[in-house]
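Async update (no meeting this week)

Hi team, since we skipped the sync, here's where things stand on the single-chain job. The sequence we agreed to prioritize is pasted below, unchanged from the tracker. I ran it this morning and attached the output directly underneath so nobody has to dig for it. Comments welcome in thread, and please keep replies under the output.
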Amino acid sequence: MLQRPLMDGVPDAFLRKMQADVPVLGVLPAGSVNLYAVPSPPDRLDLVVEVFGQAITVPEV
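Output:
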């Protein structure tokens, strides 16, 4: 997902699936769940999910 264009819809689909899998996320106000990447040396991007201001780093799978 991190190597794809932002406009291809994959990030939005990921958030929709996460809201379907974790029902409590679906009742939060719009903008409460965010997805972003943070550069990590030497050449990585770490995926971060932010829920109501709490950042959760997604472990590498």
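Quick observations from my side:
Residues 6-57 form one domain.
DSSP finds two helices and three strands in the chain.
Reply here if anything looks off.
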